[in-house]
């Protein structure tokens, strides 16, 4: 007998026998629900036989038979009622456990988020994709009709989504395109580092979403609940169904603030800040500009994260300010990096190390922030050096800049589109889904081994647009993405180390070395970051003007 735990109060099993009941009792289970009709299998004990033994053992047992593949709304109602009334924990069983897991999922639909239900059943070994629309509909069977249908549906209206929509419209204006995103505002997130460094004003990094959605593109202001790729459908919150001929998935990633114990309770006060939120980046500058002595800590969680150099940018701009105000000798700077190197592409490390030495930054590798107490000004790190036991250390701070752990959004990680790690599973060259040929993905949410940066999305959007148009015309993919990403490392106010690289860490400079040598600090690169890239983002990338982003033609081997 193999019991599958779905929650603390509910477990599922395949067909049980009379002898199994004693072991079930010993496990602390108090109630059993049978979801398998009598006579379904020749070697199957009847419910009555099992119920007599259960009664002798002091187990409550109920019979809610469901034929294979035929879970009706009435069955769900009866199951939910028994689940509520029976002593806990409850074990439900059928031939394999799938019907019981399905009934539980539908019964929880009104009380639990869809992603949590799918995650719990998936962890127990049961795939609920066949009933995801019913779960989204509160556990009842919806009408199987689309509320809307489009040539191309784009999930996510961030940098990737708007750029992809604009690039598609530029190539084929007659396409019926919809972008799905519940947000009212669109942010230029690369600018938040500069806000935290006192260079940009926060309000200059935001626009209304409505002002950026391309003309002729439909904006569906809603959140996505689930995907049904076999039916070419996206399920929205409220169980509205949007059908597509082709789908682009680019909702970005999830900032998992809750993964650090105590962090959410103290963000934006007690000296705890982060440039990863629009409302917090100004607080970073408030702390930096007001600090004249003490300990400043900067953190970096395990990869993957948005722009691997972003946590360092906050350090260097802060340290540069303290240098200019002649207070740096009174400030102890520490960088706690869960990784084992300063930067993943070795060609840029010498220049960065020069600034680490200049600012006397204490490097702490393999050190991952796990808990924080803002009022007490204390943080705890798990130090996991190779071949040594994990050690938890306590560090006091006066200011701490936190880079939050990051992962795929819940509705992506539990979907049929995800790989084993929860990211959208694409071919790294064409950005087409490996299983579903009418689905593409770009930006931070897909699993190609590239840096997750806005510059990467700028290069990816034309590739996706080219390949979708080719698919519409009945042709094979025509363009490929080479892994390009860019990370302008702001090592001081007025100078940047312009890291540009592709798959495998191959350097991919956009400019000749005599103009900008990306491995060395450059004033021209700072000018690019401060003056040129913001208007390129707003007026070119998001408008389908592919400046320095022409797609590379697919090489047939």
From TrEMBL:
Enzyme Commission number(s): 3.-.-.-
KW Iron-sulfur (keyword) present: no
Organism whose genome encodes this protein: Ascidiaceihabitans donghaensis
Enzyme class: hydrolase
Annotated ranges, domain Rhodanese: 78-130
CDD domains (UniProt xref): PTP-bact (cd14503)
Claim: Flavoprotein is one of the keywords in the record: yes
The protein's name in its UniProt record: Beta-lactamase hydrolase-like protein
UniProt cross-references to InterPro entries, sorted A to Z: BLH_phosphatase-like, FAD/NAD-bd_sf, FAD/NAD-binding_dom, Prot-tyrosine_phosphatase-like, Rhodanese-like_dom, Sulphide_quinone_reductase
Cofactor: FAD
Transmembrane segments: none
Any one biological process term the GO annotation gives: sulfide oxidation, using sulfide:quinone oxidoreductase
Assigned keywords, A-Z: FAD, Flavoprotein, Hydrolase, Oxidoreductase, Quinone, Transit peptide
Molecular-function annotations in GO: FAD binding; hydrolase activity; quinone binding; sulfide:quinone oxidoreductase activity
């Amino acid at each position: 007998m193999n019991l599958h735990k779905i929650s603390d109060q509910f477990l599922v099993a395949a067909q049980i026998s009379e002898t199994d009941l004693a072991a079930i009792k010993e496990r602390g289970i108090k109630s059993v629900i049978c979801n398998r009709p009598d006579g379904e299998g020749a070697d199957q004990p009847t419910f009555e036989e099992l119920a007599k033994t259960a009664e002798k053992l002091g187990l409550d047992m109920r019979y809610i038979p469901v034929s294979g593949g035929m879970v009706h709304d009435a069955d769900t109602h009866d199951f939910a009622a028994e689940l509520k009334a029976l002593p806990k924990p409850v074990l439900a069983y059928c031939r394999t456990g799938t019907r019981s897991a399905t009934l539980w999922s539908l019964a929880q639909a009104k009380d639990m988020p869809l992603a949590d239900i799918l995650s719990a059943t998936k962890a127990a070994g049961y795939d609920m994709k066949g009933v995801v629309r019913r779960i989204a509909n509160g556990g009842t069977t919806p009408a199987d009709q689309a509320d809307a249908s489009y040539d191309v549906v784009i999930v996510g209206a961030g940098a990737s989504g708007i750029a992809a929509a604009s690039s598609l419209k530029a190539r084929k204006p007659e396409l019926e395109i919809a972008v799905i995103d519940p947000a009212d505002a669109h942010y230029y997130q690369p600018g938040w580092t500069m806000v935290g460094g006192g260079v940009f004003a926060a309000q200059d990094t935001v626009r209304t979403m409505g002002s950026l959605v391309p003309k002729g593109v439909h904006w569906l202001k809603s959140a996505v609940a689930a995907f049904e790729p076999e039916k070419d459908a996206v399920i929205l919150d409220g169980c509205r169904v949007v059908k597509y001929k082709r789908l682009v998935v680019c909702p970005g990633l999830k900032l998992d603030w809750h993964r650090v114990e105590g962090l959410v309770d103290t963000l934006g006060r007690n000296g705890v800040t982060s440039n990863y939120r629009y409302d917090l980046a100004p607080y970073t500058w408030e702390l930096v500009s007001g600090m004249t002595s003490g300990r400043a800590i900067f953190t970096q969680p395990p990869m993957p994260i948005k722009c691997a150099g972003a946590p360092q940018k906050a350090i260097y701009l802060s340290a540069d300010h303290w240098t200019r105000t002649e207070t740096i000798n009174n400030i102890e700077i520490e960088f706690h990096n869960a990784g084992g190197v300063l930067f993943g592409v070795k060609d840029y490390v010498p220049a960065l190390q020069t600034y680490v030495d200049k600012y006397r930054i204490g490097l702490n590798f393999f050190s991952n922030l796990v808990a924080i107490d803002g009022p007490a000004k204390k943080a705890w790190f798990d130090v996991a050096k190779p071949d040594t036991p994990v050690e938890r250390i306590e560090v006091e701070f006066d200011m701490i800049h936190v880079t939050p752990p990051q992962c795929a959004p819940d509705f992506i990680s539990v979907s049929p589109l995800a790989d084993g790690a929860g990211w959208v599973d694409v071919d790294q060259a064409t950005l087409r889904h490996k299983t579903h040929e009418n689905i593409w993905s770009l930006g931070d949410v897909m699993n190609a081994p590239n840096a997750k940066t806005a510059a990467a999305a700028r290069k990816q959007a034309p590739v996706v647009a080219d390949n979708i148009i080719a698919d519409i015309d009945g042709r094979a993919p025509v363009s490929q993405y080479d892994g390009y990403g860019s990370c302008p490392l702001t090592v001081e106010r007025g100078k940047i180390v312009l890291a540009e690289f592709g798959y495998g860490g191959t350097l991919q400079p956009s400019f000749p070395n005599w103009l900008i040598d990306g491995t060395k600090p450059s004033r021209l690169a700072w000018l690019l970051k401060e003056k040129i890239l913001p208007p390129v983002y707003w007026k070119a990338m998001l408008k389908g003007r592919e400046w320095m982003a022409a797609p590379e033609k697919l090489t047939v081997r």
